[in-house]
């Protein structure tokens, strides 16, 4: 196994193929487009002395993620990686359309077959980090940042959790639903109770919360209160039972449901959409908790939230303390492209593409790269 140390912007990052759990079949071209593999063989036979520069870019305003992973990939699977010249931005950099984020210079046959894999790493990681950055930004009003919980475990294949969690961390979310999501950046997942726990106690919110608190007394007690579709009444039941021990309540009402609060008070309806988690429900919940002296209890909302909905809640000054966001953060909407733009020191690219130098790129210093078995 190779261990790689590289210095970027004055600090040392330690990257290993164990960190990223690369599939060893990458070396055999199993995950590369076949035309890249054929080009590698043709180049070895007919153009072995070539030196090309490959550059990578995308077309959005984004938060870059994937550079560490890509550099580790290159130094794990390229032939003679120590002879390649690599310039890179770093994870977390803000990038603009067509801005060059990485260049690799060396013989095509030594690394060219990794092009599609590099595009894919950048695309997924940057999409997630940018999505998270945008919702975190939406949840910051008047200089106060409300936490965003990354809850993307059920929205994609489980093997993606570590990389997605790292990208979410780069985007600004440090509260994550699984241990795997925080594997690459050294924390552990956080969470309280699902609807399943309340079901096991026949829908009794208080008894479920008692069991949770008895088993995990050191945890902050955050209780899910929408199981019976009566958020305010159930929140008050839990608050009366636990008092100062209750940290927060979470509202996760389905968008096809109308909470019992509005059924009891039909006069409140008619000027807004009463389904699901809505700002009016959260205002009413806050007022009910405060009226009984439970102003310390925070409110967490989840269920279909994205940048647009968070912005709407914040513009309405809804009294939300924390957002839980899942599927919308995993939309892959940023695609990267790798182009060969210099051949043997001379500009050379397909029509419509060209070398785009970027003074922000930093060289990966090869003297800091160490290999050990």
Automatic annotation (TrEMBL):
Top EC class, one word: ligase
Source organism per UniProt: Litchfieldia salsa
Pathway: Cofactor biosynthesis; NAD(+) biosynthesis; nicotinate D-ribonucleotide from nicotinate: step 1/1
Catalysed transformations (reactions): nicotinate beta-D-ribonucleotide + CO2 + diphosphate = quinolinate + 5-phospho-alpha-D-ribose 1-diphosphate + 2 H(+); 5-phospho-alpha-D-ribose 1-diphosphate + nicotinate + ATP + H2O = nicotinate beta-D-ribonucleotide + ADP + phosphate + diphosphate
Domain Quinolinate phosphoribosyl transferase N-terminal per the UniProt entry, residue ranges: 36-121
Taxonomy, superkingdom: Bacteria
Pfam families: QRPTase_N
Keywords associated with the record: Glycosyltransferase, Ligase, Phosphoprotein, Pyridine nucleotide biosynthesis, Transferase
CDD domains: NAPRTase_B (cd01571)
UniProt xrefs under InterPro entries: Aldolase_TIM, NAPRTase-like, NAPRTase_arc-type, Nic_PRibTrfase-Fam, Nicotinate_pribotase-like_C, Quinolinate_PRibosylTase_N_sf, Quinolinate_PRibosylTrfase_N
Name of the protein described by the UniProt record: nicotinate phosphoribosyltransferase
């Amino acid at each position: 196994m190779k261990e790689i140390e590289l210095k970027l912007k004055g600090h040392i990052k330690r990257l290993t193929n164990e960190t990223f759990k690369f599939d060893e079949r990458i070396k055999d071209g199993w995950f590369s487009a076949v035309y890249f593999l054929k080009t590698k063989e043709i180049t070895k036979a007919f153009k072995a002395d070539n030196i090309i520069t490959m550059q990578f870019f995308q077309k959005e305003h984004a938060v870059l993620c994937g550079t560490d992973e890509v550099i580790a990939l290159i130094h794990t699977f390229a032939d003679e990686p120590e002879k390649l010249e690599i310039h890179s931005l770093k994870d977390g950099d803000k990038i603009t359309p067509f801005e060059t984020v990485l260049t690799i210079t060396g013989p095509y046959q030594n690394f060219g077959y990794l092009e599609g894999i590099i595009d894919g790493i950048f695309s997924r990681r940057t999409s997630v980090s940018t999505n998270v950055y945008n919702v975190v930004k939406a949840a910051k009003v008047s200089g106060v940042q409300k936490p965003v919980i990354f809850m993307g475990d059920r929205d994609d294949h489980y093997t993606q959790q570590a990389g997605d969690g790292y990208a979410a961390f780069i985007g600004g979310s440090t509260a994550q639903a699984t241990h795997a999501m925080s594997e690459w950046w050294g924390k552990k997942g956080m969470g309280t109770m699902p609807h399943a726990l309340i079901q096991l106690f026949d829908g009794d919110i208080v008894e479920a919360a008692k069991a949770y608190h008895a088993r995990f007394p050191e945890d902050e007690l955050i209780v899910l209160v929408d199981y019976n579709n009566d958020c305010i009444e159930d929140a008050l039941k839990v608050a009366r039972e636990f008092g100062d021990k209750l940290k927060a309540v979470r509202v996760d009402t389905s968008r096809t449901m109308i909470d019992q609060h509005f059924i009891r008070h039909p006069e409140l309806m008619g000027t807004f959409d009463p389904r699901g988690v809505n700002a009016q429900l959260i205002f009413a919940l806050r007022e009910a908790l405060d009226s009984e002296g439970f102003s310390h209890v925070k409110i967490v909302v989840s269920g279909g939230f994205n940048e647009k909905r968070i912005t709407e809640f914040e513009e309405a000054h809804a009294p939300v303390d924390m957002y839980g966001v899942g599927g919308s953060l995993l939309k892959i909407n940023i695609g990267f492209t790798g182009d060969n733009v210099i051949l043997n020191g001379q500009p050379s690219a397909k029509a419509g593409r060209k070398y785009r130098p970027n003074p922000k790129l930093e060289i990966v210093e090869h003297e800091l790269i160490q290999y050990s078995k």
